[in-house]
Design brief:
Purple Acid Phosphatase, chain A, domain 2; 7 helices; binds fe (ii) ion; single chain; six-stranded mixed beta sheet
């Protein structure tokens, strides 16, 4: 069995912003963090989640975006130090979220220094997406849905080039007998978006490719909620999965910090995926299993 810990949206505590950096769309995000979000995303919750993941010793960690909040230089320096402290680039795959690409200056502000965890060879430039990582009989395909969205938007987009490359990768990986896991930050289906201004603009084109070429698992973040949606594809049932923000404090209207462990096994020509949802429980903040069940690529499809 190959095990993957899926975590998302850690939103590390705000590490600072210069006046020049705030003279942009970042001012909205800074106000939102200062007035509201800093009470929701708590460092100790995130560290409880990370300690729980470490105790489970997964083979790999999949992190589906939003490490930072408004893409400042200080935030990216803190994010790089945080990644370094928790996992070597070979053990963790990160895809950017909308908060990691908050403005057009995000890449030069430091997003590119996180490239080694995105499968890039150097920290001087962002790698080209999609990225493909082979791990035993698993193909982890990373998509980058983050772009500097207009003011008051948290939308995503993939673009024709990424989608065309994905359409070639999926059948090639299937021909090699690999379990295909696709990861992106935004929800891949329009119906999973919480509002049009937070949606993936080319979700319909993405779903069309996934249905036509097949994939076994899709991991996403952005909504800060648990989700499991089975979808019919040419090669069986694809399972779309999401998890809460890894730093969400208890007591709010969204689920507290959690993550999910995927245990993937090939059995009699089909893929078996055991999903274990782990979440912070109670005032003392103990991590507990909320649900555990096994999916297969031959499950009765729902759509
Ligand atoms: Fe997001």
């Amino acid at each position: 069995m190959f095990t993957i810990a899926h975590m998302t949206d850690p939103h590390l505590p705000m590490a600072g912003a210069s006046l020049a950096e705030l003279f942009s769309k970042r001012i909205l995000g800074w106000l939102s963090w200062t007035l509201r979000r800093r009470r929701s995303h708590r460092g100790p919750v995130l560290e409880a989640v990370m300690a729980d993941i470490a105790a489970c010793k997964p083979h790999h960690i999949a992190l589906s975006g939003d490490l930072v909040n408004i893409s400042t230089s200080a935030e990216f320096a803190a994010a790089r130090a945080w990644l370094k402290a928790h996992a070597a680039p070979r053990d963790l795959t990160f895809v950017p979220g909308n908060h990691d690409c908050y403005t057009a200056g995000a890449e030069s502000a430091g997003l590119r220094t996180l490239s080694p965890w995105m499968g890039g060879k150097t920290d001087q430039a962002l790698p080209a997406f999609p990225r493909l990582r082979y791990m035993r009989n698993i193909a982890l395909i990373s998509l980058n849905s983050a772009y500097p969205a207009p003011w008051r938007e948290a939308s995503g987009r993939l673009g024709e080039k990424q989608l065309a490359a994905l359409a070639e990768m999926l059948p090639a990986c299937a021909a090699k007998g690999l379990c295909r896991i696709v990861m992106l930050h935004h929800p891949p289906m329009e119906s999973l978006a919480t509002s049009p201004r937070k949606a993936l603009k080319d979700a319909a084109a993405l779903m069309d490719i996934l249905r036509r070429h097949g994939a076994e698992i899709v991991l996403y973040g952005h909504n800060h909620r648990w989700a499991h949606v089975p979808v019919r594809t040419v090669s069986g049932t694809m399972h779309i999965l999401s998890a809460p923000s890894a730093s969400m404090a208890p007591g709010g209207h969204k689920p507290p910090g959690g993550w999910q462990l995927l245990g993937i096994t090939r059995r009699q020509g089909t893929w078996e995926i055991t999903v274990t949802r782990r979440q912070l429980q109670g005032r003392k903040g103990t991590m507990r299993t909320m649900a555990e069940w096994t999916l297969t690529s031959k499950d009765a499809p729902a759509s």
